[in-house]
Design a protein that fits this description.
4 strands, alpha+beta, 65 residues, globular
Length: 65
């Protein structure tokens, strides 16, 4: 199912970093994200809902320019 929030996302396992690009054009890097969380996000039917429940507000982040 296409997300109404997320355009794309990628995981850097070595850095434990999840990069998320939102449909509104903003991008964020979430730090110290466990690989299990990324795998669960990949499997989630509703990516935006998963992101809002399990990532946003749970991990430190930096905004991507």
């Amino acid at each position: 199912m296409p997300s109404h929030v997320i355009r794309s996302f990628a995981y850097d396992a070595e850095a434990s970093r999840l990069d998320v690009q939102l449909l509104n054009g903003r991008g964020y890097s979430y730090h110290e994200v466990p690989p299990q969380t990324f795998e669960a996000m990949k499997r989630a039917f509703a990516k935006g809902e998963f992101f809002n429940r399990h990532i946003r507000g749970k991990f430190t982040f930096t905004r991507l320019e």
